[in-house]
Amino acid sequence: MLEVKETSPALELQHGHTVVGVTQSPLSSRSYKFARGIMIRTPGVNDPVPNVDIVYVGRRGVLANNSLGGGMPLLPGANLELPVDDPSQVYVISGTASQDVAWMGV
Q1: Contact at 8 Å (CB) between 88 and 30?
Q2: Are 79 and 47 in contact (CB under 8 A)?
C-alpha cells in the first residue's frame, strides 16, 4: 500500500520597504502569495531614521485618522502581524510625508 504524506508548500521569504505619505499606497506594488502572513514595522526612536508620525494600515480606501474609515494606527517603533497572503492588498497612509514601513512575509 502506498502512503501519501501531505507537505506544506515551499515557503519563500519576501521583504521590502514602502515610503508612506499623505496619499494611500499599497504595501507592495508586487503581488505575492504568503502562507503565514505579513509582519509590518515602523522605525522608532532606536532606529537610525525614525518615523515622526503614525502610519495607518488598512484596505484600499484607508484614511489617516481615527474615523470609521481610518486604519489601524502604528506608532513609530510599532509592529503588526497580519494573516494576509498578499501585501499588495494592504494599504498604508500617514498624516506626514516620507514615513517608512518595513514588511516581511513568508
Answers
A1: yes
A2: no
Question: What residues form DSSP beta bridges with 76?
Answer: none
pLDDT tens track, the chain, 106 positions: 555 444 445 568 999 999 999 999 999 999 999 999 999 999 999 999 999 999 999 999 999 999 999 999 999 999 999 999 999 999 999 999 999 999 999 8
pTM of the model: 0.87
The answer to whether the CB of 17 falls within 8 A of the CB of 92 is no
CA distance 12 to 105: 8
Identify the three-state secondary structure at position 100: strand
Q: Is 89 helix (H, G, I), strand (E, B) or coil?
A: helix
